[in-house]
Amino acid sequence: MSTIVSNVYLIFINALNYFRDAVSQHILFAIGILLIAGYILGKVAEKLHLPIITGYIISGILLGESIGAVIELKMVQSLRPITEVALGLIALVIGGEFSKAKLRAIGKEVVIITLFQIGITFILVSLALNLLGFMFEFSLLLGAIATATAPAATVAIVQNLRARGKFIDYLYSLVALDDAGSVILFGMVFAFVGTIVSKAHGTSIASGIMITNAFLEILLSLIIGFIGGYILHKVTYKKHNKSEIMIMSLGIIFIIIGLAHPLHISPLLTNMMVGATLVNFSPKNQRISRILETLTPPIYAAFFAIAGTELQLGIFANPQILLLGIVFVIIRMIGKYSGVYLGALKSKSNIKIRNYLGICMFPQAGVAIGLVLMIQASPIIAQANIQIQNLAITMVNIVIFSVFINELLGPVLSKWAIIKGSELSE
Fold first, then answer.
1. What whole-number distance in Å separates Cα of residue 330 and Cα of residue 314?
2. Which of 27, 50, 251, 387 has its CA 20 to 30 A from that of 11?
3. Residue 169 shares a structural domain with residue 309
4. How distant is the alpha carbon of residue 208 from its chain centre?
5. Cα(371)–Cα(179) distance, rounded to whole angstroms?
6. Segment 141-185, tens digit of pLDDT
7. Is residue 165 situated within a structural domain?
8. pTM of this structure
């Protein structure tokens, strides 16, 4: 009898494994599982008064390979277009807040706040990690990466709450300027660190190349974004059919995303420029964001769930990463909040901006991971000794740890801050 039961069990397990291997390779199956899991856990999150995106992220963690899910989702590369489309839509929404009228009203204040929060975060994180014994040059790099913020969580929460007003105008502007400032700061710090490391190891990489590349990336992103925004304005301005406007808008966004990789430009900055160009040619173009908003719920659900699958729980087993990661997260939060507070104080912004805007800067995701992976893949690191290469790996793990914590805690704190800052009721 036991032999029969054992054979039936083996047949069932083999069938289950066969089914898993057959369907888990199909991108539509993976997307379907992500959407359903994200929907269920998103509802649970709402019941607990948490941001819905927290549920999406947790669904991705539960389905990720790091905890041995029953369904093996090998989808990081195959689902990358969804991530890029989501970021493109998010960037367009943020860029659409950069109208000339709003910039005249808050431009100077936001620039001051941005400079304060980037500068203070960079200094505090760099010093804290160096005091813990982390190599000075790499502490500077992590300090620069700490300045980056995740716009996706911010936009998703704002849209879910349907928040509007001066606080949101400041928030969108700050997030956009923060990303541009982070890229510039990182390029300058990486050039400085690269010079020191390359000289120490006898390699010859020009020190000014990375700074030049950072500025060229931003300049080219803005030029292409302006061209894309102008074309989209011309082809949709006289149209009234929402379907036609949606098709043309998605076409432009997809083309820009496709151009970003071969041209080595930022799709985030480029699509922000598209949104800014549209709203400054005509306020009527704001309808494009409203039309595209009907597509965002499933795209955002898949985007945040995919982000969750990339968070590796194994990093919690390393005491060094745990210590450095906790310090990185805490000091970064202190730097972001105090930087925004002091910048708002300097620019004489109102009390809501001072008290709550800094909390909205806590989420951190794709930009930070992209920057640290750029370091790891750099020829400077590849030509250095094993100690430097191991430090680069440690940096990657610290940033992944930070993203893990900030993607779970950040949206919760941001939602609370947006409600308070915008004077919404729960």
1. 21
2. 27
3. yes
4. 27
5. 11
6. 888 888 888 777 777 778 777 777 788 888 888 887 787 777 778
7. yes
8. 0.68
Buried/exposed 19-44: b ≥16 CB within 10 Å, e otherwise? eeeeebeeeeebbebbbebbbebbee
Residues in the chain: 426
In angstroms, rounded to a whole number, what is the distance separating the alpha carbons of residues 18 and 28? 18
Residue with tokens 């989420």: 363
Q: Which residues of 104-128 are buried (b: 16+ CB within 10 A; e: fewer)?
A: eebeebbbbbbebbbbbbbebbbeb
What pLDDT shows up at residue 66?
A: 46
Domain that holds residue 386: 80-421
- Measured distance CA(197)–CA(201) in Å, rounded: 6
| Ranges of H-type helices in 347-385 | 351-356, 366-377, 379-382
For residue 426, is it within any domain? no
CA distances from 407 to 138, 152, 317, 364, 381 (A): 23, 10, 19, 6, 28
Same domain for 6 and 116, yes or no, is: no
Q: C-alpha dihedral over 368, 371, 377, 380, to 10 degrees?
A: -130
